[in-house]
Known about the structure:
By secondary structure, this protein is α+β, with helices and mostly antiparallel strands. It contains nine helices and 20 strands. The strands form five sheets. Strands 2-3-7-6-5-8 form a six-stranded antiparallel barrel. Strand 19 and strand 20 form a beta hairpin. Helix 2 (93-117) packs across helix 3 (141-157) and helix 6 (260-291) runs parallel beside helix 7. The chain is elongated and about 95 Å long. The N and C termini lie far apart (85 Å).
Amino acid sequence: xxxxxxxxQDSYMREFKAKVISCQRIGPDETFGHYEVVLDRTAFxxxxxxxxxDGGTLKDILLLxxxxxEGVIYHLTQAPLPVGEEITGVLxxxxxxxxxxxxxxxxxxxxxIHRIFxxxxxxxxxxxxxxxxxxxxxxxQEQLKEVEWRANEVLVQNLDLIENWPSKKELDALVFxxxxxxxxxxRIITIxxxxxxxxxxxxxxxxxEIGLIKLTSVIRYKGGVRITMLCGFRALADYARKEALAKSxxxxxxxxxxxxxxxxxxxxGEVILERQKYVALEQKLFAYKVATLPVDQERICLFEADxxxxxxxxxxxxxxxxxxxxxxxxxRGCGGNNPQEGYRYFIGSRHIDVRPLEKELSGLFSGRxxxxxxxxxxxxxxxxxxxKKWFAEREENVERRTxx
Length: 404
């Protein structure tokens, strides 16, 4: 038997009565097993066409999933339902209507892109947070804004979404969009002047019910583009989040919301200047540190705190430029004061192949690293005392590179 699909009769149906035809346990045991329930009819839309299944309850039992095989719709539950009994199904209406908004908006956007650019929609995914639409051609940011504007113009017109089940003869004469080969009866959703598309999903009755279409991004994807879309209450929630963020930044920057970008650019410039001053002072400190190193010590091991960026490498090179044979700089980034966290390091030499040191460090101190014969870098676990001891023991065992 096949399941009567009530969502085709009325996509706004929130509750329905149905008879339990079968209930079969699946899974390894009674504790973790689930049940596949078949009803004579259902208003729950199964996963299909890039859209995940509806949620809700059957006889107050939570619905886990809905899927279709050979015309039969299976409802996955954690508890059994009595075969032959008439039960009540209740849809999660807020979720269903949200998906109706998203999917109907996808038809508008895809129809417009097909009419404007002659691109095909080659992929659609209605996710838990947003929807993505894939097209087989390039669309720029400017073109995306045009599509978004025209899509919202369609909403304002409050056009009907017309459902039609054409005969085979009628279908052959129609021009419509479809992402797959159609083998069964075909349902065409028409938005006058915008789109004609084969589709199996529930839709809103009028475009105005979508409320708002926001195309948030476009990226290159598999030779074409992927567009991310938010519609209806999702778009409204996104606006609310961004509005709250703008207000928070406005307070932090002591600037009007319309002046946030300018304020951030000013602050960024100030940060760059301060960073330049800091680096200049740090380099003077490094020069002083190198000048005070023991004259008769050729192999230097330094431990530093709060180093970041290029500073550790700069310090190592400064030591080598002073004529030292080997230099190891062990350091932590800003705020790294926990001895158990370990150290990052740079080790370099103008005359010694330092690659064996990386292998030994990684083996003894559970580290990782890499580099060339002149310089290695990486991370090790261990405290300063054990690392200093290791370096002291290696001073006499590190050989010069051949010919140097």
